[in-house]
Amino acid sequence: MAKTKQIFFCQECGNESTKWLGQCPACKCWNTFVEEKIVVGASKHLGKAEAVAPTSILDVTTSEDTRIGTGIRELDRVLGGGIVKGSLTLVGGDPGIGKSTLLLQVCRNLTVKEHKVLYASGEESLQQIKLRAERLGGFTKDMLLLCETNLDYVEGAITKVKPEVVVIDSIQTMFIEEVGSGAGSVSQVREVTSRLMRIAKQLEVAIFIVGHVTKEGTVAGPRTLEHMVDTVLYFEGEKSAMYRILRGVKNRFGSTNEIGVFEMKENGLHEVENPSQVMLSDRPLDAAGSVVVCSLEGTRPILTEIQALVCQSNFNLPRRTSVGIDYNRVNLLMAVLEKRAGILIAGNDAYVNLAGGMKLNDTAIDLGIVVALVSSFKNVPVDSNTIILGEVGLAGEVRGVANIAQRVNEAVKIGFSKCYIPKSNYDKSMEKLPIEIICVSTLSEAIEKIF
User: Fold this and answer.
1) pTM for the complete prediction?
2) 22 class by beta-carbon count within 10 Å (0-12 exposed, 13-18 middle, 19+ buried)
3) CA 238 to centroid of chain Cα atoms
4) Are 231 and 332 found together in one domain?
5) Which terminus of the chain is less hemmed in, N or C, by CB atoms within 10 Å?
6) Residue 287, domain member (yes or no)
7) Based on C-alpha coordinates, what's the Rg of the chain?
């Protein structure tokens, strides 16, 4: 006989426990355990399943129609070339950031190409979806809508109409009756995702699922949700800002950390073909503390502006603020600047900002951060036609960065005339480029040549 059992789940990683714990022993997060009821059955298999013979990899064939173009180049870039049939993609982001708008635009482009699409929503009525769709325009009869939260009915609709692409908005609203807990719980999210993955693989249907995010910016529910899907996409950017960044955190069919840049307008999201030009459009010229760097996001080099402000502190403990750049990384670079270059800024407030609303983790911007801090501290501007590249080590050395040729070529394309690079990255072929290349090997040497 089936019986009900009390289990505690960690909302961050999905770890199970028979009792409540203040700290999860798996992911070390505090106060993440929630109580849920699960049904434990005593079902027995009547017989052994028939064995399935494995297939040689040489007998598996692929074709060019394995991917479906979305009609949005920026999204195709992040996905690795288009939508892969039978794939399961998770799209996360803050509320109102543009997740549903982007997926509706994808549905519109697919229906124009006569691809059948099913949009299953558990949050909006048919009339509400229609109002948003009218703002975008251009839909055909191949766009099918379904307002349902029971996954059994959604699966039945998929089996009946046989769409090529399915959108589930959102995963937290779907539930399975056999699971005793409510919709959005750890058990429901995990079981619903597992069922959708099976549907995608068996029916060769590409499924997009929208996921709500927590205040920390991660998808709500167990972390195992991200491990189950094929692709994880995150929308970044402030809701009040003009630009949105779609970042591929995980992709089994393409490169990770690839980004797509969009601009939010009245009639939806529009692609930004030249992000570097956009990020530098409002850059102040000859301003102290402003430095241009180049970050490599996936296969795309993007020029961005780093702004730093160093001023005298009115407190015993100086303030440190970092926006768009790792806070601990900035503190580390300030310590190296004091110890290796002899510039004493420990008693000053320091504010570092990455203009444009982006978030970067590329170590190639280290030298640019340090130069921006020194520029603001000395109140001496850096030449506006200069770009600075290099990783800074704890010994004060300037280390080489990956794909230096792509970064320098991007600077040439935008129109920069001078580039500081690590000495170890120098190549004779750079002499032919219409840009002055200046090599540096230490932090002190870089500061001396720039200032």
Assistant:
1) 0.79
2) exposed
3) 14
4) no
5) N
6) yes
7) 26
